[in-house]
Amino acid sequence: MNRRLFVLSALASGTLLSIRDAQAVLAKDTGTPKELACINKLDEISTEATGYTRYEHHHQLAIPVSSLILPPKEGLTVRTTTLDQGSLDLAAFDQFIKETGLSAALKTHSHAVTFTPEELDRIALGEKEVKIAVKTPKGNPAHDFFFTAPQSALIKVQRGRRGQKLVSDTSVTCLVHESEVFAESHDTPFFEHFHTISIPVKALIEQPAAGIVVTTSAVDQNSYDVAQFASFIKSSGLNTANLKTHTHAVAITQSQLQRIAAGEKNVEIKVISKAGNYVHNFLVTAPRSAIVKIAKAKKA
To answer: ∠ CA 152-61-145 to the nearest 5 degrees?
Structure first.
């Protein structure tokens, strides 16, 4: 295999919808506020709430990787995003307000969530689906959050706990917004590194016949395999700076969009170079909030 051709092709643009078209899909009205909540930044891990009582609604909860590297002795308290307006069961909410006499301001509520040092450590050690229960101020069950740290975060935790200083990347303010579905890359050839892909919910609703093309995040600087990278650069003669910060244009077919929108779990999206070489794969599962938005759009 020609390694130079492999990587240069992997960095090239895709052949379906243009990136501008894909971004335009997101810009259209999705039934959510104009200022979309950020649900995941580069050095955070996040998950969506499950469970609710009288009316269906969803929140996202993100925690910094730094709190997993060195869990605070007093624990960690963070707030969820405010209620996701696009997936709120408005009829049930209105009925709840009518019956209880509570303020309609509840429509924009969030929750303060406390993690114990033990819970943070369990997530940091790679335990899957660590349950974090959230209660109302009256002590009633509100939501559950199930945390599983992705591989990139676990690598950062291991390096941080060994005393390695992590790079601060202030250029990435937000990886994923409330109106997007996201996943982290899995397989990677030549040197281990990670990207995140975000798919607009609007594209899952419209499912363009030509598919869409989206751009991944750049290489996560704190979790790539430095030794493998150096060896690959030496053998390939490629430009170090370009490869270290590369992104990929990822083609997603209509069939894949339809499968994700239908609720299929772990829909595989492969990143293939123009030369036909395998680059990465993403396993995409739409969260419940996105599935609700899609169902609402179909009824409209």
So the answer is: 95
Distance CA 229, CA 125 (A): 25
DSSP-based three-state secondary structure for 246 = coil
Chain centroid to CA 57: how far? 19
* CB of 205 closer than 8 Å to CB of 294: yes
User: Is 63 within 8 Å of 81 (Cβ atoms)?
Assistant: no
Burial class (CB in 10 A: 0-12, 13-18, 19+), 131: exposed
**CA distance linking residue 267 with residue 289, whole number of Å:** 17
pLDDT tens digits for range 44-84? 999 999 988 889 999 999 999 999 999 999 999 999 999 99
213-228 tens-digit pLDDT: 999 999 999 999 999 9
Q: How far is CA 140 from CA 62, 82, 111, 133, in A?
A: 22, 19, 13, 10
pLDDT in tens, 6-37: 343 344 333 333 333 333 333 343 444 445 88
If we measure between CA atoms, which residue out of 220, 255, 208 comes closest to residue 44?
Answer: 220
Question: CA-based angle 33:87:89, to the nearest 5?
Answer: 115
For residue 294, which of 209, 145, 179, 211 has the smallest C-alpha distance?
A: 179
Rounded distance, CA 37 to CA 82, Å?
8
Read off the tokens for 217: 């995040």
Sign of the alpha-carbon torsion through 100, 36, 46, 270? positive
* 83 in Cβ contact with 108 (< 8 Å): yes
User: Helix H segments across 33-175?
Assistant: 66-69, 90-100, 117-124, 151-161
Q: Which single residue is written with the structure tokens 């939501």?
A: 143
What would the mean pLDDT of 202-212 be, rounded to a whole number? 97
- Cα-trace Rg, the chain: 20
